[in-house]
Amino acid sequence: MSGDRPRERGLDVPPNASDTTITRAAIARAKVEWEYTVDTLPHLICLLDSAGFVVRVNRVVERWDLGAIGDLLGRDLHGVLHAQCPGRGCALLGAVTEAWAALGRGEPAEFELRDALLERALQVSLRRSSAEGDNTADAMSVAIVSDVTALHLAREALNTMNSELEIRVRQRTAELTDAIRDLRNEIVRRETAEQALRRSRNDLATLSRQLMTAQEKERKRIARELHDSVGQQLSAVKYSLERAELAQQQARPHETQAILQRAIASLQDTLAELRSIAMNLRPQVLDDLGAASAVSWFCREFAQSYPMLGVRESLAVVDADIPDRLGTAVFRSVQELLNNVAKHARAHQVTISLARALDRLVLEVADDGVGLGATAWSTTVGGGRGIHNLREQAAMTGGEFSLRSGDAGSGTRARVEWRLVGGEVRETDAA
After folding, report:
1. Quick one: DSSP state of residue 348?
2. CA distance 303 to 293
3. For residues 298 and 334, is the Cβ–Cβ distance under 8 A?
4. What confidence tens digit (pLDDT) does each residue in 328-378 have?
5. Nearest 5°: CA angle at 53, between 49 and 54?
6. CA distances from 408 to 178, 238, 340, 372, 403 (A)
7. Is residue 311 part of a domain?
8. Whole-angstrom Cα distance, residue 343 to residue 319?
9. Domain holding 360: CATH number?
10. Which of 85, 113, 147 lies at the terminal end of a domain, its last residue?
């Protein structure tokens, strides 16, 4: 049977070899098989003695350009990986030393680091040999060094992607926050615009009702004036003409002449009354000449109607200086303000000024009356329809109305300011 053992085991020994020779051949065969096995692995495998020096190592050291296997035997694990490293301050040396100490304490001895000298990411694991009969002094250890550079690169790429994703999420969140804020602002703006539109509609409806009421009042006033004044005078003229006809039929020529003369005088009075009514509705001079001339004419008429009130006219414009769209507004404003002064201010002097300033047309009416603090002004003008209508009329024509007064007896200053637009602004105004 001893002759069959070498052949059975596949050992290259003579048939009559001794047991010692066969054992040595088996050990050599096992060594070769171990080398074939570990050389095919992608990891660096080192067999270390109890002092931590390399007893065996696979050919991965050659593939990693660490040196020849024979040159690396007898070195420690750091010496195998870092042949030219001085050791001082080396992170790998510190990690290997700490792992070897943990191995001696029976603790897990593993670490992973990115080595700049090898330009590789290494995963190192140390394990004690578990062969039976090994004592602490002769215990062998195995060091497995894996190249995990691809894993590290994948992790770094994943971390980079996560960072970029977080940045994009933050940017997108900020964009969405801004969009939500803009949307909320737009909602508030639209709600404000809707409220303003509703107020404008309500104001327009109120103004329309007031306009209809004012028109109806004006129609009643005109009808009353025509009936009470012109109608009665025309009736008297008709009666006079009938009497003249009767006197003519009865051959009383001296009575006819007197009756006709009285009828002619009544007709003249009626014509004067009609002209007055027409003038109050719209002065002819406003259409024939212009707004400045109409204002000047009204100031003269006002002075004649109220001789106890001193009227000072200061017009720094001519008819061409006042745009057609503002002519009626300027005249009606002067008319309303002067009538208010005559009725309520109890003033001795009133000044009317009309001028252009830059891109604006400014009308001011100032008096030395009782002021807004007096009862007459505060109850009839400050809170009455006249000033309210003036303010609305100014707003509808692109102007602003203001009314200022100090203490009682300090007078009142009314100001209407219209902004001129487009071709209404002249180069001299800008200068």
Report:
1. S
2. 15
3. yes
4. 889 989 988 998 898 888 899 999 999 998 789 999 999 998 887 654 444
5. 85
6. 55, 54, 17, 7, 14
7. yes
8. 29
9. 3.30.565.10
10. 147
Alpha-carbon gap, residue 412 to 255, rounded angstroms = 58
Separation between Cα atoms, residue 237 and residue 257, nearest integer Å: 14
Report the candidate in 156, 65, 139, 150 with the shortest Cα–Cα distance to residue 104.
Answer: 139
Residue 29, CA distances (Å) to 65, 245, 366 in order = 28, 168, 128
Amino acid symbol at 288: D
pLDDT tens column, 163-197 = 999 999 999 999 999 999 999 999 999 999 999 99
143 close to 126: Cβ distance less than 8 angstroms: yes
Cβ–Cβ < 8 Å for 81, 62: no
Q: Write the CATH number for 87.
A: 3.30.450.20
* Residue 150 CB neighbour total at 10 angstroms: 9
Task: Tell me whether residue 421 is in a domain.
Answer: yes
Determine contact, residues 54/76, Cβ cutoff 8 Å. Answer: yes
Give me 408's structure tokens.
């009682």
Q: What are phi and psi of 131, to 5 degrees?
A: -70, 140
pTM (2 decimals)? 0.45
Question: Which residues have C-beta within 8 Å of that of residue 251, sequence separation ≥ 6?
Answer: none
Within-domain flag for 211: no
Flag whether 84 is in a domain: yes
Which residue in 348, 345, 347, 334 sits closest to 394, CA to CA? 334
Cα–Cα distance measured from residue 84 to residue 3, given in angstroms and rounded to the nearest whole number: 52
d(CA 341, CA 365): 9
- The number of distinct structural domains making up the chain is 2
Residue 306, token pair as written in the block: 């109220």
* Segments forming the whole domain that contains residue 67: 41-147
The string of DSSP letters for 10-39 reads: T----TT--HHHHHHHHHHHHHHHHHHHHH
Please check whether residue 69 is in contact with residue 62, taking contact to mean a CB–CB distance below 8 angstroms.
yes
